[in-house]
Design a protein that fits this description.
Length: 903
Amino acid sequence: MYKVPPFAATLLCAVLLTACNNDSESGNASIEGNSLPESNRVAAASSSRKAADQDAVTRADNPELTADYAKWRRQQIANVDYKISVILDAESESFSGTVVADTRLTGDLQQPLTIDFSGGTVEQVKVGEDEVPFEYNGYFISIAPDHLAKGDNRITIFYRHPYSTDGSGLHRFQDPEDGSVYLYTHFEPYKANRFFPHFDQPDLKAHYRVDVKAPADWQVVTTVREDSIEELDDDYRHWHFPQTKKFSSYILPLHAGPYRVWEDDADGIPLRLMARQTLAANVKPEDWFTFTKQSFEFFQDYFAIEYPFGKYDQVIVPDFTIGAMENVAAVTFNEAYVSRGEKTQAERQRLANVIAHEMAHMWFGDLVTMDWWNGLWLKESFATYMAYLALAENSDFDDVWENFYLRSKQSAYDADGLMTTHPIELPVANTAEAFSNFDGITYGKGGSVLKQLPYYLGREEFRQGVRNYLHDYAYGNATLQDFMQSLGEAADRNLEQWTRDWLYQPGVNTIRARFSCKNDQIRRLTLHQSAPDDYPVLREQRIQLGLYRMQRDTMSRVETLPVTYSGAETEVEAAKGLPCPQILNPNEEDWGYVKVQLDSRTVEQLSQHINDIESAFTRLMLWQNLYDSVLAGRMSLSEWIRFARENAGAEQDINVIRAIASHLESASEYLYRIDLPQDMRLERLGVIEDFIWQQLSDAPSGSDEQKTWFDSFTTVAHTGEALDRVIQLLGSQLTIEGLTIDQDRRWQLVILLNRHLYGDYRQLLEKEQARDSTDRGHNSAITAAAIRPRAESKQEWLDNILRRDQYKLSQVKAATAALFPAEQLDLFDRFSGRVFSAVPNVNAQADTLYSKAFAMVFPIVCGVEGVEQYRNALDKNSGLMPTLEKALKNQRQRSRRCLRIKP
């Protein structure tokens, strides 16, 4: 990815694409029971957009769709609707289809009209009843302008396309257990044209009418329920679906196969849950339906718009490359959300969160959609924030915002501190760049920034602004400017400066509180804000201060003080006269998106009183702050390990325990990476291993704490004594009361033994493969083989990764993620020449998903020579795909950071 410079304020509107489809659709949703009217604002926007520049834009002969061409094409097409007919079967490697595109052109074309269609075969093109000549370059179909006329044109295309094996387009999966074939679609951001030829851009919304011929024992699913199923004589059935409402093609679903189906109802909304038959026994439909009903109850009230798409299906699919996807009324989920054992509460909450996230998109993303992919962050950020809000206000989970802090907020801080950081809103020149922006900025930072807006504007003002936005732009497209205008009008606030500072400038600020006291009361308290040198923007936001003092045996919060700060220094007048704090948390309960540097008095108190602090959320934030100090080089790794050993054992809150366990795993990896005498390294690794085993042994039977420490043990165990326990756990000679060693945990133990070549690791792997013939088991076996610290294993799996001829993308990822763990950097040194020399060939394949998987091979290295290898690779390979370039730059920077960690 290219490095994005800071954006000037004058670019606020200039980077927004203005062409959009604003055809309104009435009677399909309601505002508190009333039908949605055509929006005056949309109509006004449409009028101004029709006056846009009509100059032709030449389309390059390559896989991407550019923003400029999409904008031009939108100006030529007043409306389009599709009828899609496909023939699916279980045996073939491809499918056939016919698409009829009823297309209304705004005028006579001066250049060919292109129709997106990647990697297929075009058999015939007709306009009206006449067959017409066409050109097809493997990326798009071109029809000469003399075959098209102003007004209505019926374009019919007969085509074939191979099924996908990389989780995009129309993906085919054959279950290794029973041989059944399952199909599903995944199109974001620019893969719908791998399913059918059409105008694949979000601002050309359309209605879709679908019919499918498929094997008689298959279930076929799309946005609407079928209106008829025709029984055929050849063990096939012909499914006919009525016309859908209007939406963008990247969220059009088609899923097919012998799925197991569960049914329920959410206050009149029909619900279905589907999974492949061999996974069905592990699915807990009661959890899925409970979380779904709670989300519907919350969102319909919050948005004041009834669910607009009639029914709601959720399909759990194999080989999925992301967590889930908001296909209209037929959402897809990764099978990783199905556990082959009991879930922890954190895992249940993660499932509830992703269900709520995808449902939020039904309104924000599907009902109202961005004009172009520069708006991708807004829909993802909004769904991220709204999912947590839904769980916080309408679920049984009571630690939702702690989980937001642990997951979304930390990923945002990490991404925002890298040289590849970027503004939340930035120009996206083409569809390849759109994909590269799926990162911690898109989800975590965007969600964090939206989370602070209700504090800044007011909760009800924010909610009303969201309602107005969804009402005004329903079934159409909108921009960031439209969204911020809706919020600003509802709150009667001018948000131009806020938008410039937060959405058009990258980087994260740091605040530090300074205070003085007299007579045990605060005399003066100031907040000092700083910014990175590369992004010197000082922002305004509302946070709250948490003031703590010892009262009897508890470090109690004696005051919570909301503060709006801005600029380099803000004096907090309201703090005067408050009790002098022993511990001061400047971002209490995590209102703000900001890094915190603790004052010296607070840091001193932590060594004595971290376990006395009454608020688990504050303890969580302070533990995170301490580990951040290690990564920043302010606290030595040894000092932190000592602090953790002395204090972590007393912690009882599961979220704090999860954070500490994660930091101990990270510390163990850095001990392998940094330059240390071997005896010192082994001593500290032993301390971590012993501590984690002790915590696992002492954890309450059957608790989430126990499961958390088990996961950490299977990451850090390395001594003969610990690995003997692993063998005993696998053979049931050793048991841990309350902990079931289910199939997924068995694989964790087998992978660990292969990672250290311990015991009969080969035989144990073969035995486990025979025991678990599932797709998940096969991927785990690949991980176990690739992680072995032997040169021949690395050679074999590098060959497999680079050849790509016998492994699916999910299997490639199972190998790349395991190839060079931290303790095997010597093996990476031996193979680094081959890995780096493969970069041009991987890049030449122009496969974004594969390049992203390949990039997982590259480790963090803590040596000057290793950093230099990354620099040379970047210098020698100009024009890298955005995802590949971004990965190399990030690993180079993480490797540089590693050099500053103090032993």
